[in-house]
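User: I've been trying to design a sequence by hand for this structure and keep getting stuck. Would you show me what you'd pick, starting by listing the structure so we're on the same page?

Assistant: Good idea, let's start from the same input. This is the structure you sent:
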């Protein structure tokens, strides 16, 4: 399970920088660096940032923070999990500088925190996974709905072995769960809800561990957490890959967002600028889907 508290402090001094505009201005087309860009390049930024929220965004934020700190040794960044709802509330209540959410902000949340600013830094697919002993290669959206609603209870009903289905899901408040409910359970005007008999887990890592080690389980997982320990299921014959999200053939994906309460401060803005720069998006592209 990934750690819930990540503190990065780079203690070495950065030598002279060879690129004068490593963080491009995303709002104005100009070859001259902005004040924020110049600060990042020179390593003159200092202070502390706190991030909290989605456990899907958390590991990506950690890697981005490490790269950012390499150029800014006087900056400290703390990255905590807690789930997307925690990210929204923490940003809205100003207990952190940046919240993280792996779903869209709800209307009710905007009503509570009217000044929330949403910055999409990446997109992420959600894959259906099973225990590796189950050789199920593809399911339809309707079959997935029925399985997770508890209407289909045996794998033999979907071309699998004669075995009782064990559903594994994220907890209420999870951004991954909210996206799965919106994109799958509510697809085609369905009103299906996740069965009360589902085993609930608190993170993507726990979902993967449970499904990989528990017989007859099925769950859903962020693309960024997929590995060979689980069996990955295609949807209507389309494999869950970044390429298939980009060509619009795989439909289960959602935004990865960072949130601020109003306009971000100088340090938060510099970090966000870095994430959206070519260098930041190159890091995003290793496991997620870029916004460019």
């Amino acid at each position: 399970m990934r750690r819930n508290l990540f503190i990065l402090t780079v203690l070495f001094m950065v030598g002279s920088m060879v690129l004068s505009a490593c963080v491009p201005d995303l709002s104005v087309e100009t070859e001259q660096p902005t004040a924020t860009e110049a600060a990042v390049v020179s390593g003159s930024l200092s202070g502390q940032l706190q991030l909290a929220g989605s456990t899907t965004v958390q590991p990506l934020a950690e890697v981005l923070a490490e790269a950012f700190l390499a150029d800014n040794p006087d900056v400290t960044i703390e990255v905590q999990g807690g789930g997307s709802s925690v990210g929204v509330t923490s940003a809205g209540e100003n207990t952190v500088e940046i919240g993280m959410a792996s779903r869209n902000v709800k209307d009710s949340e905007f009503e509570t925190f009217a000044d929330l600013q949403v910055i999409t830094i990446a997109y992420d697919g959600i894959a259906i996974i099973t225990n590796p002993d189950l050789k199920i290669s593809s399911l339809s959206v309707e079959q997935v709905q029925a399985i997770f609603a508890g209407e289909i209870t045996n794998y033999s009903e979907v071309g699998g072995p004669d075995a009782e289905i064990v559903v594994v899901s994220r907890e209420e408040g999870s951004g991954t769960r909210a996206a799965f409910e919106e994109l799958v359970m509510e697809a085609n005007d369905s009103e299906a809800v996740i069965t009360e008999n589902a085993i609930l887990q608190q993170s993507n890592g726990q979902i993967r561990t449970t499904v990989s080690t528990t017989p007859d389980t099925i769950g859903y997982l962020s693309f960024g957490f997929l590995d060979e320990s689980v069996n990955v299921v295609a949807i209507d014959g389309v494999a869950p890959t970044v390429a298939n999200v980009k060509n619009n053939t795989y439909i289960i994906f959602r935004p990865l967002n960072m949130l601020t309460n109003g306009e971000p401060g100088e340090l938060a803005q510099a970090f966000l600028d870095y994430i959206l720069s070519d260098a930041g998006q190159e890091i995003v592209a290793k496991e997620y889907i870029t916004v460019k």
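That's my pick for every position. To get oriented when you compare it with your attempt: The chain has two domains: 5-123+255-284, 125-253. The radius of gyration is 20 Å.
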